[in-house]
Amino acid sequence: MANNNFTFGPILSRRFGYSLGVDLSPSLKQCNFDCLYCELKPARAQDSMQEVAQVPLVIEQIAQTLHSLQKSHAKVDVLTFTANGEPTLYPHLYELIMESKKILATFKGAPFGNIKTLILSNGSLFWKKEVQKALLEFDMVKFSLDSLNERIFKRVDRAHKSLDIAQIKEGIAEFSRIFKGALIGEILLVKGVNDDMDSARELAGFLQSIAISRLDIGTIDRPSAHKATPLTQEEIEHFASVFENICVCLPQRNPAKQSASQEQNALQGQNALQAQSVSQESKQELNKDEILAQIARRPLSKEDLQILYSPLSQKRAQELVDSQMLAWVKVGSVSFLKCVK
What we know:
Helices cover 37% and strands 18% of the residues. By secondary structure, the chain is an alpha/beta fold.
């Protein structure tokens, strides 16, 4: 039976605030990449969606979720379109974003304010005119670009055979010339795969030539489905050093310089301040199935749980750990809650 749970969150994002997610492929992974660092279960890359959600169903759930969150005074800064895979594979993306903007216009004011629209993409289809038409309607578009070297690109992103890095590069450049919103790039580094300085200089040269608002450079900081090793903070900073005249954002966590206890204390201090702005009544009250569905999409740290979940939801999450449906997995010095396979 298809899973029609299209919305999830809000989840606290370090860079976008409180994000209400819209998953365009809730039942299965549908992606033209199968990245080494992906948090989702491995799946063969595909060039189209086999299971396509109907726009009215997605819109109805967005409206219902926003109404429920409004009643509970929850905070939502951004409506984030993603997928268990690649959202630009969704064939009705233009219709969906246009209908979503109509819905958001009815929810302006307390407690939401002006909710922005964001799409998280791998950038592989920006050369398609129908994809560009849809993306132009978003406030923010974030794309990933992990390497411009064809061999390294295939190794780290494990892309569908129809995809060509030269075409992807040109598509991103073309879209950057016509998009008026915030275009954000991201590079995810895997140790020993795409972290060499030749790759850094090639990426820097290209990204300096196009109009992007920000570049996020990071590494694996949540449990990945494939065997992949993260970089240290010093290694990330060294890689990022060649990206001149670009607004570069690096990860905040620094396990290389801090002991586990020091990092946990730092995170707890930071998150305690964030938690003060989240009223108890606005924290998520989820049943066990909803917790499993949310964590299947995105593993959560202990701090995430404390900020986002009500005490009862935290208790239910622990019960799922006790019943071995969830487990704590360590990445660096931070523990994440992940679904047991």
